[in-house]
Amino acid sequence: MAEFVEQYTLVRWPVVAAFVLALGIVAVRLTRPARGPRQDDTATDGAHLLMCLVMLAMLIFPADTHPHAVRGVLTALIVAFALLLAERVVGRRAGTRIDGAAAMGYHLVAALAMLYAMGGHGAGGHTAAGPSWPAAVLAVLFSLDALVAAATARRGGGWHRFAHPAGAHPLTSALVPHIVMDIGTVFMLIAAIGR
After folding, report:
1. Mind telling me which residue stretches traverse the membrane in this protein (predicted)?
2. Whole-prediction pTM value?
3. What is the sign of the dihedral through the CA atoms of 38, 43, 49 and 51?
4. Labelling 131: which of 80, 95, 167, 173 has CA 20 to 30 A away?
């Protein structure tokens, strides 16, 4: 994947800039004091923060990012997101209002897609070839999600609010980080197809 990322510099650096923007938005959201009944989901913001950091490391240092380390981090994130999703589903069924199950499900699927895109890479580089159709299907799904989220931004981010209950204005909510995560995931999946 490092070769793909380094080869497409004109795409790589705008994606890096998008992730830096998303990281800034998430950092502001996480440091903002809660006012009244806070609707923002700090677990979702934390998930965006961690996923942005992983993607930035892979994009800025593609040749130096060790594939086993990235797979380890993604595996840990998958376990954490699965536990948070289970907590939210169980809480909702128990009658406790826990929003954000869809958001945590999204992050779980995104982390799984990234781990899938990392498949076939070992310490010495590319190790195995697998079918590319799952990566293509996932890339299309994440592309559609980004388009739908962006299209609903003018109408208050209705689709996005379903996935990420957030503050009053969609552009100050998790909308931008969500779309950036979609773009980054698509970039990784295309890199997986192109290897």
Report:
1. 12-31, 43-63, 69-86, 98-119, 131-153, 174-194
2. 0.78
3. negative
4. 80
